[in-house]
């Protein structure tokens, strides 16, 4: 079974976090949510999430993918946490998937994972970093090798479905998507 780690920081975007958690679990993927600190996480719009565990307790666990929800100040807290940067770099070295949405692609940039890649983010987030060797795209979801990025809350469902496809295949993606009655 595929395993995915989703770190939850205070001020994360709840729509992105919950959509990814929900859809991946619908696909039979084991999702572990981990708080940066002990206790519940209050998201950017006041929704309170209770992580499965503390990040510290899963640092040495094996995951197939690391997904970073965006939102502010959540993405800033992820970006300032050396454990997250180290985990991203370790995942990249093992050629495992790293994914980020909204403001969180800047964390991938800080970890050095966007060099020479195509990526997207919430409008202006990556532009502000002035990354000359990152090719910014305006697409809802951008996949470049093992790095997957997305734009924001409105693209969270497309993002989660792409993650499902990468982890467990097109058939699982289609099965989950058909149950969502998107059209």
Name of the top-level CATH class? Alpha Beta
Rg calc: 15 Å
CATH fold-level topology: Rossmann fold
**Structural class of the helix and strand makeup?**
alpha/beta
Averaged pLDDT: 97
Low-confidence stretches: none
The run of helices and strands is: EHEEEEEHHEHEHEEEHH
Strand order within the widest sheet?
5-2-1-6-7-11-10
Let me know the largest β-sheet: 7 strands, mixed
| Secondary structure tally: strands | 11
| Measured distance between first and last alpha carbons | 29 Å
What percent strand? 15-25%
Total helical segments: 7
Helix % is: 25-40%
Describe the global form. globular
CATH architecture: 3-Layer(aba) Sandwich
Number of domains: 1
CATH superfamily descriptor:
Class I glutamine amidotransferase (GATase) domain
Write the layout of secondary structure elements.
Layout lengths: L2 E6 L5 H13 L3 E6 L5 E2 L5 E2 L3 E2 L10 E4 L5 H6 L2 H12 L3 E5 L3 H6 L7 E2 L5 H5 L5 E2 L4 E4 L2 E4 L5 H13 L1 H11 L3
Parallel strand pairs: 1-2, 1-6, 2-5, 6-7, 7-11, 8-9
Antiparallel strand pairs: 3-4, 10-11
Helix pairs in contact: 1-6, 6-7
Describe this structure in words.
The structure is a single chain. This protein is an alpha/beta fold. It has a single domain, classed as Rossmann fold, CATH 3.40.50. Helix content is 36%, strand content 21%. It is built from 7 helices and 11 strands. A 7-stranded mixed sheet has the order 5-2-1-6-7-11-10, with helices on both faces. It has a two-stranded antiparallel sheet with strand order 3-4. A two-stranded parallel ribbon has the order 8-9. A hairpin with a 5-residue loop joins strand 3 and strand 4. Helix 1 packs parallel to helix 6 (156-168) and helix 6 (156-168) packs antiparallel against helix 7. The radius of gyration is 15 Å and the shape is globular. The model has no long low-confidence stretch (mean pLDDT 97).
